[in-house]
Amino acid sequence: MPDQTTTPSAPAAPTGYLRLFQVREFRAVFAAHAVSLLGLVVAEIALSVLVYDQTGSPLLSALTFALGFLPYLIGGTLLASLADRHPARRVLVLCDLVCAACVAPMAVPGTGIAVLLALRCGLAVVAPVFQGTRMATLADILGDGDLFVLGRSLLRIVSQSALLTGFGLGGVLLTATSPRHALLITVGTFLGSAALLRFGTRRRPARTRAGGALVADSLRGARQVLAHRRVRVLLLLFWIPPLFAVVPEALAAPYAAGLGAGSAGLGLLMCALPVGTIAGELFAGARLRPATRERIALPLVCVTLLPYAGYALRPGLAVSLLLLVLSGAGAAYTLGLDQWLVRDVPGELRGRAMTLLTAGLMTFQGVGMALAGVAAEFAGVTVTVAGAGLLGTAVCAVLAGEARRTRHAAPATERRDRADRHMTGG
């Protein structure tokens, strides 16, 4: 009688985002990101409540959120070279410890408002250095290929998810404890992140040798990054769409009031764009091949803001939510841009380029929110959002054309290889 036994098939290899968790160092980076992000969300809520309780001023309470945007430009330009002239793990751990040191005095009773706001600025100055260094480190851990793109995407998805759940959970936390005690939780999360990065990632040498003063070196590095035509247009493609994309978020409160949607409608309007972004990135990362993600990047960036034009028809709540979800889903273009950026930035400038990217992203969003408020004062909410969609689409189309013209520029690594072969007669 024939043998009916069969050899058990090997388990299927993980695909999509699951592949990332086979890399031990990425697991540490991912856990550190989640832990520190939780702490930051708790700190923002607790600090705004603390400031309002002490002053009774809505303006000063709102200013604690605004200070999360404004100092990014300072840290991202004046301190950017830290990401390349020191070992990455040391920079990451030091940034976490500095953040913990900034939050700890906030929890001390009697700390004045001016000190609280100054410490909040300190967090925002350090943030772009930390995020830029972490992005560059991801390329070291995951390589310059598809795993890096998926890793970046997953960290963004976690950040977007925090917008949906973090503030609600933070509000619940503050019903059980005081703002100052909540800030102590934030101190613990930053220390936990530092420990995860210190013991979960390996030491790598600095990308470049330190030369000259820190600020001068940072500014010189920024000029070198922006002098490269291809890298410059890619950075603009990261920065410009969010400048326009934040307009509905900035105007969500008056728009919800105009619709008579109440606080529930406001909450839905604030959630719709992140929901679309998460769905778009998950689909592109899990279901599309790397070549496909690169191929659709420029078409997507040209249409991602177009749904905003529908606000000109003064839609109701349901249609407005649909427009926002569609626009958010178009943000999947960033997966293609990630691949191009890590491929075309010289390795010795990668940390500075990623830090500059983070600083510019936050700064442009802050500027977009401010301009949206000014425009709405004169043109009204619906006209401002629709205008942002049309103007943003036109600007993105111009940038996409420039990106297409520069796509055949040799990647930085290829240029260096050719130069080395020429010098050696190869």
- Output the CATH topology of the largest domain: Growth Hormone, Chain: A
- CATH homologous superfamily of the largest domain? MFS general substrate transporter like domains
Low-confidence stretches: 1-8, 410-426
The span between the termini is 65 Å
Query: How much β-strand is present in the residues?
Result: under 5%
Task: Please give a structural write-up.
The longest helix has 32 residues. With 426 residues, this protein is mainly alpha-helical. 46% of the residues are buried. The protein has two domains: 167 residues, MFS general substrate transporter like domains (Growth Hormone, Chain: A), CATH 1.20.1250.20; 183 residues, MFS general substrate transporter like domains (Growth Hormone, Chain: A). Helix 3 runs antiparallel to helix 17, helix 10 runs parallel beside helix 17 and helix 10 packs antiparallel against helix 18. The radius of gyration is 23 Å and the shape is globular. It has 19 helices and no strands.
